[in-house]
Design brief:
Number of helices of chain A: 6
Number of strands of chain A: 5
Structural class of chain B: alpha+beta
Distance between the termini of chain B: 81 Å
Shape of chain B: globular
Radius of gyration of chain B: 28 Å
Strand content of chain B: 15-25%
Oligomer: heterodimer
CATH superfamily of the largest domain in chain A: [2Fe-2S]-binding domain
Number of helices of chain B: 17
Radius of gyration of chain A: 15 Å
CATH class of one domain in chain B: Alpha Beta
Strand order of the largest sheet of chain A: 2-1-5-3-4
Number of strands of chain B: 31
Largest sheet of chain B: 8 strands, mixed
CATH superfamily of one domain in chain B: Aldehyde oxidase/xanthine dehydrogenase, molybdopterin binding domain
Largest interface: A-B, 58 and 56 residues
CATH topology of the largest domain in chain A: DNA polymerase, domain 1
Structural class of chain A: alpha+beta
CATH architecture of one domain in chain B: 2-Layer Sandwich
CATH architecture of the largest domain in chain A: Orthogonal Bundle
Chain lengths: 173, 771
């Protein structure tokens, strides 16, 4: 049976009418129209569905909607507002991209781009917790953090590392 | 009214510029096409007409709209095409907007991996249009064409000038340019069941811009789709939503060849909105709610019974199965067999080896997804990510039993395809079309990862026997090779096979894919043998094979370059110097020198003097390989660390060199080279499709392994751009030059030849133990 669940997504409180055990991925995509997180494996093995919950990456394909009630969910659509909040500006209506997004454009990271939403989520979390990561630390964040490595089949890993370093410079200044 | 234009080559191929009318407040010069041969024989008209969308429009606001059926496949085509058109028109690429892949909005068709033919087409479209614009400007300014100067879309004569937009203002002008070719259509006689892979080809030779005057080609123009992709604004194939659309999940047997005994029950109390749809062996559960569809499909699947099929040898017995297959005559050969046999007989020393590789997968991160809306009037629209929308359109029409004209394929972004949709489609498109026809509703089919890794076609495993003879100086006198593999053109759509509706089949042939780089080797003979899908002589079942990035040449070059490395070692020669002895091609020699220098290569023979096949300490080695493909010269240099006791192989550094003629876009090229190396290292170290006697069992990322970021080597790129050699294929080939260089580096480190990839720890431990 459907439950009325209150979520805070990208700074806005939302109520969705879904079964509580439904993975957050389908709530974000089908109920809230957010296409940033994407279905890759449904098994938390690839990272294409990653979103931030209270600032930490989770895999929305295996996380029930009920598990994020009362928490702050951020998708790539919400990264500009997250950045504005970090800088102490008004969260709503920010047109300035998060430095991670801008770096992804400047470094021309996406090839097909399917996995890149999850890749940017990792970068946003990493740079909050480690403002000046080394290359081994970046590789570690994308590879060894549970539940799985973030996979890119186009092979954009080198561009991702460059973009994370570029975003780090901007976020420090 | 007809406007005068200079004919090029032949009056038959001359473009025609016509004023069709007036547009108040607007204005456009639209480029369409004509089939010149039609005037001779109207019956030659293509069987399938293409949509009459214009190819290019010069608009009154000075913008340029380009429509092409070729699509962005992740390698930067959307940037390159804009640059090519911009260069010929002499306008900045920022003013060019591309519409790609929609069959009702683009005129030309063709497969997206064929960038060189696509670029050549657009170059000519741009060149014809530029000449038409010059004619219009000359009339406007009252001067001869020869006295006009053009910069960034402004034509000037002395102190007077006019913009392209003003030339078309308030008018509707049409430029017809000559083409040949046809849209894709199903043809059972064709080698892969569908014709028209190249789509339309522009005829004639309009004057194109000299390379010395290039302003936009050679610059790092960005890929236009990236900002929307990083902000979440892109509508991907998986994001199509239609009123009354049903979400479908497929209920599959273990494998092709299994047949349906009974469909499991659907508990309507638990899944009130769900329904089951069945057509022969195609079974799906559909619901307006995606989560309900997922759960109901699992429940129905658990209760569904199928017959079992087993005809596969099991992946551990693949080599043996290929060896015992009754191969017919070679399906293709190059070189001189008799001369090569004689030269081998005369050789002072012969080196023979067998190389092999298991089945591998395209394995994109996003499994197949498609949306179909088949209307009651028989028309159908498919939203899909195909690298050949016109090919998919033809196949969908065939499946649904309707004319091709009634099908529209709308192209949207999705995860990279790496060749698996080159012939149209391979996955969810057919399921969606059949289910929409069955239910009368728009249907979105999302394959699960397990569906995709089990049911999409694979790049077939292969075995190659190759040998060479050395002369008294230690140089290669002759090379003979025999390549054996299952065909890789099974472009049938899975849903059609299961539903028992028409589906074309492909021929069991293979082809010699090598572009021969060693002109100083006096004799060579290459032959290739093809077979139907593994596991069956019938096209109905077995392990389906499809081309994958750098097809054929990736495999055959691994064997050739590995043998060259073995021969260099036998001749106690440095493998770079050994290659230089066997080629006189100046481009190959130059890029080889440049890459070797960038990698700080010190000449010596392999193996390394301290090579070891035992111990817990890592041993290091380096290896080299080359490849010539599509007017591009590749060099790969790998540096590896092998830990014999554990079998761990790490590629520490990879230097990749490329001369692909005139570089169109340095940054996009560099990222294609680096990302191609990641895929190539992945294939060399990790990738293998595992199957038992009935089905593929490596159906998750935990069992089909691809390279992670931490496993990526340091990558260094080296480029040479040439103004006098045209464009070359730079986006695809990087993956193919990794495995031979890595295998050579492994030998250099351990003194043991690895003649099979992937170099997994299990394989390496076994190999070193038995060495």
């Amino acid at each position: 049976m459907a439950d009325q669940l209150k979520l805070t997504v990208n700074g806005t409180e939302q109520t969705v009418s879904v079964t509580a055990e439904m993975p957050l991925l389908y709530g974000l995509r089908n109920e809230l129209g957010l296409s940033g997180p994407r279905y890759g494996c449904g098994l938390a093995q690839c990272g294409a569905c990653a979103v931030l919950v209270d600032g930490s990456e989770i895999r929305s394909c295996i996380t029930p909607v009920s598990a994020v009630v009362g928490k702050k969910v951020t998708t790539i659509e919400g990264l500009p507002a997250l950045w504005a909040a970090t800088k102490g500006h008004s969260e709503t209506g920010s047109q300035t991209l998060h430095p991670v997004q801008q770096a992804w454009i400047d470094e021309q990271v996406p090839q097909c781009g399917y996995c890149q939403s999850g890749m940017m989520i990792v970068a946003a979390e990493l740079l909050t917790k480690n403002p000046d990561p080394t290359v081994p630390e970046i590789k570690d964040a994308y590879t060894h953090k549970p539940p799985s490595a973030h996979l890119c089949r186009c092979g954009t890993y080198a561009a991702i590392i460059s973009a994370v370093q570029r975003a780090a410079q901007v976020m420090k200044s | 009214m007809a406007l005068p234009l200079k004919p090029y080559h032949s009056p038959l191929f001359s473009p025609k510029l016509t004023r069709r009318g007036f547009i108040k407040g607007g204005g456009v010069l639209a480029v369409s096409f004509t089939f010149p041969h039609l005037s001779a024989a109207a019956t030659d008209a293509p069987a399938t007409t293409l949509a009459l969308a214009s190819w290019l429009e010069i608009r009154h606001d000075n913008t340029v709209l380009v429509r092409t059926g070729r699509a962005e496949i992740g390698t930067g085509m959307s940037a390159f095409y804009a640059q090519v058109i911009a260069e010929e028109l002499n306008v900045p690429p920022e003013r060019v907007t591309l519409i790609m892949g929609d069959t009702d909005k683009t005129p030309d068709g063709g497969y997206s991996a064929g960038f060189l033919t696509g670029a050549e087409n657009l170059r000519k479209v741009g060149a014809y249009t530029y000449q038409a614009l010059l004619s219009l400007a000359a009339r406007h300014l009252g001067v001869p064409v020869a006295s006009l100067k053009v910069a960034d879309g402004v034509v000037s004569a002395g102190d007077r000038s006019i913009r392209y937009g003003e030339l078309v203002r308030e008018q509707k002008l049409e430029l017809k340019i000559p083409v040949s070719g046809q849209a894709a259509r199903v043809d059972p006689k064709a080698w892969n069941g569908v014709n028209g892979l190249d789509g339309l080809v522009v005829l004639g030779n309009p004057p194109t811009r000299p390379v010395s005057e290039y302003k936009f080609i050679g610059r790092s123009h960005p890929m236009p789709g990236i900002p929307d992709k990083v902000t979440g604004k892109t509508q991907w194939t998986c994001d199509v939503w239609l009123p009354e659309m049903l979400h479908a999940r497929m209920v599959r047997p273990a494998t092709l060849g299994a047949t349906l005994i009974s469909v499991g029950p659907l508990d309507k109390k638990q899944f009130p909105s769900a329904q089951v749809a069945v057509k022969k062996n195609l079974v799906a559960v559909l619901s307006p709610n995606e989560w309900e569809a997922i759960n109901a499909a699992q429940a129905v699947s658990a209760g569904t019974r199928w017959t079992e099929w087993s005809g596969l040898p099991g992946s551990e017995n693949l080599t043996q199965a290929l060896r015992s297959y009754k191969w017919g005559a070679p399906s293709d050969a190059k070189g001189d067999a008799a001369e090569t046999a004689a030269a081998l007989a005369r050789s002072t020393r012969t080196i023979a080896a067998t190389y092999e590789q298991p089945y591998v997968k395209h394995a994109p991160i996003g499994p197949f997804v498609a949306v179909a809306d088949v209307k009651s009037d028989g028309s159908a629209t498919i939203w899909a990510h195909s690298a050949n929308s016109q090919g998919l359109r033809a196949r969908i029409a065939d499946i649904l039993g309707i004319s091709t004209e009634k099908v529209v394929v709308r192209w949207l972004d999705h995860a990279g395809q790496f060749g698996r949709t080159t012939f149209g489609g391979d996955g969810a498109e057919g399921d969606a079309a059949i289910l929409s026809q069955l239910t009368g509703k728009p249907v979105r089919v999302q394959w699960s990862l397990q569906d995709d890794l089990a049911w999409s076609a694979s790049s077939p495993g292969w075995v190659e026997d190759i040998r060479c003879g050395l002369d008294t100086s230690g140089n290669i006198a002759a090379i003979q090779s025999s390549f054996y593999s299952a065909q890789s053109n099974d472009a049938r759509i899975v849903g059609a096979i299961l539903a028992g509706v028409p589906s074309t089949s492909s021929k069991p042939d293979y082809w010699v894919a090598t572009e021969w780089p060693y002109d100083k080797i006096p004799a060579r003979h290459e032959e290739v043998y093809g077979m139907p899908n593994l596991g069956s002589d019938s096209s109905a079942v077995g392990l389906r094979g499809l081309i994958m990035r750098t097809p054929g040449q990736r495999q055959q070059n691994f064997a050739l370059e590995s043998l060259i490395n073995e021969a260099a070692s036998a001749a106690h020669a440095d493998p770079v110097e050994f290659r230089l002895r066997h080629t006189s091609d100046p481009r190959l020699i130059e890029i080889l020198h440049a890459t070797v220098e960038a990698a700080s290569w010190k000449p010596r023979p392999s193996p390394h003097p301290e090579a070891k096949a035992t111990g817990t300490d890592p041993v290091i080695g380096r290896g080299v390989c080359i490849m010539v493909r599509q007017n591009a010269y590749w060099v790969g240099i790998a540096e590896v660390a092998v830990t014999p006791a554990t079998g761990a192989v790490q590629v520490v550094k990879f230097t990749i060199g490329l001369d692909c003629g005139k570089i169109i876009n340095p940054r996009q090229l560099e990222r294609c080279m680096k990302s191609g190396v990641v895929m190539g290292v992945s294939e060399a170290l990790k990738e293998e499709v595992i199957f038992d006697t009935g089905k593929i069992t490596s159906t998750m990322w935990g069992s089909y392994n691809i390279l992670t970021m931490a496993e990526m080597p340091e990558i260094k790129t080296v480029n040479i751009s040439r103004d006098d050699k045209g464009f070359g294929g730079g986006s695809e080939g990087a993956n193919a030059i990794c495995p031979p260089a890595i295998a050579a580096a492994f030998f250099d480190a351990t003194g043991v030849q690895p003649r099979r990839i992937p170099l997994t720890s299990t394989y390496v431990q076994r190999l070193l133990r038995t060495a």
